[in-house]
Amino acid sequence: MPHTPMKAVIPAAGLGTRFLPATKAMPKEMLPVVDKPAIQYVVEEAAQAGIDDILVIIGRNKNAISNHFDSVPELEEKLKDKGDDDRLRRVVASSDLADIHFVRQGEPKGLGHAVLRAKAHVGDSSFAVMLGDDLIDDRDPLLTTMIAEHERTGATVVALLEVDPDHIHLYGAAAVEETGADGIVRVTGLVEKPKKEDAPSNLAVIGRYILTPEVFEILERTKPGKGGEIQLTDALQELAADPDGPGVYGVVFNGRRYDTGDRVDYIKAIVQLAADRDDLGPELRPWFKEFAANL
């Protein structure tokens, strides 16, 4: 648990074009992963790390997100009258996870721009940024480790994951040096979506960050980079290169992560999470084996 209150920011203004036409009217963050929308897993992760103030950065046609985290008295009353206590508990729990706020991004100008929209809400405090495409299994804590490292060093902290070098072009890649602490590295440089031969390592930055408020000043003067967007990676690179600052550290994550940003990986995430559930796994696992045997 963090020793000081920390807020979290969840960017959710993207168009979700990879999931069209499903995301034509539904935010991609609301696509179900088993029986909860993807964004609820992220909010639950923040709450479990002791964060109870969350800002969601949204775009147009994203009202379903705020509706999901609001209470629905008529639904709760019907479930109560039916004696459906289990579903009632789950519905109420989704409304009580945290104090959730919303702000519009306006036009999607990149992750750096989305983070910059949080400046007024966050103020002069460090804060977490959590991307909804990366779901972290609650049995493998990551955010609490990152918060602890930030409190120890006062530095920006990013989550890193070893990936196949052939896939590093899909991520920001980190150049690192060892710190002597298990699973903790110092980040000396970052490259956004490099070619395999240009990547400084196969350590990819995944969607969890602890940022210091200095990042806002940098983002305000950061020019659009790849794709014409304001890249958070560019701001992190400046923080890492600052000889007078606390720098950037990385927590190398070896736990279970579910990527919901790609259609195939989204389906894999549902299968993996459902198979691990006590209420679904016993029926699904034998069926998976039978299905696979007949392919």
UniProtKB/TrEMBL annotation:
Family under the similarity heading: Belongs to the UDPGP type 2 family.
Catalysed reaction equations from the record: alpha-D-glucose 1-phosphate + UTP + H(+) = UDP-alpha-D-glucose + diphosphate
One Pfam family recorded for the sequence: NTP_transferase
Nucleotidyltransferase found in the keyword field: yes
SUPFAM superfamilies: Nucleotide-diphospho-sugar transferases (SSF53448)
Domain Nucleotidyl transferase, residue spans: 7-273
Identification of the protein by name: UTP--glucose-1-phosphate uridylyltransferase
Record has Mitochondrion as a keyword: no
Gene3D superfamilies for this protein: Spore Coat Polysaccharide Biosynthesis Protein SpsA, Chain A (3.90.550.10)
GO MF term (any one): UTP:glucose-1-phosphate uridylyltransferase activity
Assigned keywords, A-Z: Nucleotidyltransferase, Transferase
EC number of this enzyme: 2.7.7.9
Top EC class, one word: transferase
CDD domains associated with the record: UGPase_prokaryotic
